[in-house]
């Protein structure tokens, strides 16, 4: 138990290191190394790894960064995460970063990428479009071109050419990473009392800050410890939390949900780390360099409000997830003013009503500090399920 406590304490420290100490140390050990920052939700980190780079998650300042200058860049009706990212950028937290990737999930991120360009942050800033079409020779080809464009930018900096051998090595490491994360979620599905949701959050978030090789070792150790019969179960309901895929909830909010009587057995907090749901295949002879990465995105992505997929509606996939994770109810927790999450919630909630799935809904911001009202609401939600379901 002491060993697990030490691991968890380390992960918590790494997860919220806004100075990105480990990434900077890693880069300083080799002149050809690069750091590429990326915003939620998903980026195939394998390709940067294969180019002698390290991807670092830009997840905002949470409740640990006072916003002074960042507010000047955004209207009051915009979410909080771009303000804290601007504050971090203006205070020099990203000064060792070589490039930045902004996935195309909303207008706010598009504008933030433009601001980074105007401020001259890094050696490249890429606003990255993801396919809206899932046919291999249309959306797939487009996606490969987008990724190649990122690799070209990295090549201009360090002149490292990505070969199939290097990429296959990186694919194996990240497959291992996703497999271990799946194991942790699966063990928690059966025995959620062995690890709190806040601990899981710290463990996954630490992986956004350190080399994948180091994170894999941490995950192996965690899996070992939680495979033992530790801690006692509580009379909690089992919930999935949905909507926090970009701006991250304060950890106090995750703890509040658990203290109010819920085991969080599924969430979309740091979904990018688990985005690809099956192993990515190694590059086949005759295939293009990025074909496996592209195939995995087109065919094995999870669902999210950040992704357009008319063929496989999100409400169907949410209902499937509820069954798989055997949950008692859903907590829709979205950042204030988050268009992608809030536009989807009425659709998902209607599906819950039609299928008799209990849910509750509220908004947060990454620096929310008062949880009393939320705790009362969730406590009532959890009690009502325990008493009447
Ligand atoms: S929290 Fe929502 S609205 Fe804000 S940047 Fe992220 S996806 Fe866009």
Description:
This protein is α/β, with parallel strands linked by helices. Among the domains are: 23-160, 3-Layer(aba) Sandwich (Rossmann fold), CATH 3.40.50.11890; 236-268 and 304-389, Rossmann fold, CATH 3.40.50.11900. The chain is 49% helix and 12% strand. It has 14 helices and eight strands. The strands form two sheets. A four-stranded parallel sheet has the order 2-1-3-4, sandwiched between helices. A four-stranded parallel sheet has the order 6-5-7-8, with helices on both faces. Helix 10 links the parallel strand 5 and strand 6 (262-267). The chain binds iron/sulfur cluster (SF4).
Task: Describe how the helices and strands are arranged.
Layout: H1 2-15, H2 21-28, E1 34-38, H3 45-50, E2 53-57, H4 81-90, E3 99-103, H5 107-119, E4 124-128, H6 136-158, H7 164-190, H8 197-206, H9 212-226, E5 237-242, H10 251-259, E6 262-267, H11 291-300, H12 314-325, E7 329-335, H13 339-354, E8 358-364, H14 372-388
Parallel strand pairs: 1-2, 1-3, 3-4, 5-6, 5-7, 7-8
The structure holds iron/sulfur cluster.
Iron/sulfur cluster (SF4) binds at residues 79, 81-82, 105-106, 108-109, 246-247, 335, 338-340.
Overall average pLDDT = 95
Strand content: 5-15%
Low-confidence stretches: none
Rg for CA atoms: 20 Å
Q: Total strand count, please? A: 8
CATH 2nd-level architecture of the domain at 23-160: 3-Layer(aba) Sandwich
Listing every helix as H and every strand as E from the N terminus to the C terminus, the arrangement reads HHEHEHEHEHHHHEHEHHEHEH
The level of helicity is 40-55%
The largest β sheet comes out as: 4 strands, parallel
Query: What compounds are bound to the protein?
Result: iron/sulfur cluster
